[in-house]
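Homework help board

Subject: predicted structure for assignment chain

Our instructor gave us this sequence and asked us to write out the predicted structure in token form, then describe one feature. I got the tokens but I'm not sure how to describe them. Can anyone check?
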Amino acid sequence: ASVGLNGKNISIPFSIPDGQKLVINTAPTAQTAELGSTNKITSLGSAAFTPLPANVTSNLTLTATGTGTIEVSFTPLYYRAW
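My token output:
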């Protein structure tokens, strides 16, 4: 599998067993790649996660081999009161 934003892709160099999911958190203060109860972030190498710019259309790329699914969610790093 690989994931990327605006042409900067990160390959997932390990398989994800049936019935499990890989959850990647790209927050600058807490980068993790949780597979079950194991943090596999070091397996991704020196991945430099691309920030998602505000008010700009970005191209997200997701590829996978197999029968699994990929789900993406976005949580803003800050909220405004207005």
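Reply (TA_rk): Your tokens look well-formed. For the description, you could write something like this. The mean pLDDT is 82. That's the kind of observation they're looking for.
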